[in-house]
Amino acid sequence: MTGDPFSLEGKTILVTGASSGIGRQVAITCAEQGAVLVITGRDTDRLGETLSALSGSQHRAIPADLVDSKQRAELIDRCGAIDGLFFSAGIAAIAPFRMISEKHVDQLMAIDFEAPVMLVQRLLQQRRINDSGSIVFNTAIAVHISPAGSAIYSAAKSALHAAARSLALEVAKSRIRVNCLQLGYVRTPMLKRMLSSGVDVKEAEEISPLGFGNPTDAANAAVFLLSDASRWISRTTLTADGGISVRVSH
Questions:
Q1: How far apart are CA 167 and CA 121, in angstroms?
Q2: HSE-up (13 A, CA, CB side) for residue 204
Q3: Tens of pLDDT, residues 201-249
Q4: 219: closest CA among 187, 172, 171?
Q5: Domain edges within the chain
Q6: pTM of structure
Q7: Torsion angles phi and psi, residue 49, rounded to 5
Q8: Which CATH superfamily is domain 12-249 in?
């Protein structure tokens, strides 16, 4: 251990959705802070690119589709014991309520809710999360503001948020912390796709007092929650949204 509470030296961190966007940057920043990374994602080539971008050594990339229970099990069998988990894998799909389909509901709930819940369930069952570890779920400001067209996405993230609060009580005896990182608009490929699907870019920027964020903004917040600097913080949400939620609440 170093004297810096924000350091991740000596910690092994599992990051899902590490092939792009926020997950990729979280992995890079955690490595810069001294962590050994286990990264996972569906795209093998892009995951390899993330692995190559990590400073330090002993990092591993394990491709997996976390909606598939067999692939989740294989990931856990191969990852070994971890000190932290940042769950970033997910999708954001926009659909007006009148156009919601069963496929839309099933897909978003499977990826944004079921996959993270069942991954953590098996990690705990297999005792792969070390005592005093940290679990961080990447949720979204949609939990709070639920913009038009985001009903199912907001519902899935809200369900994950509620599950995290309950989980935090169950693992507290092992000093494991469970928190959510609630992000606003961050410049990622996912945001680009969402904006191209009909979201008003100008309006989205105007409601964010500090404008759109960058992946590094999210990664720095994630490092705080994964590090010993947050050792007394659990069952809560760190909102990093450029001020959107403050403005909306007024």
A1: 10
A2: 21
A3: 566 667 778 888 999 999 999 999 999 999 999 999 999 998 887 655 5
A4: 187
A5: 12-249
A6: 0.92
A7: -65, -40
A8: NAD(P)-binding Rossmann-like Domain (3.40.50.720)
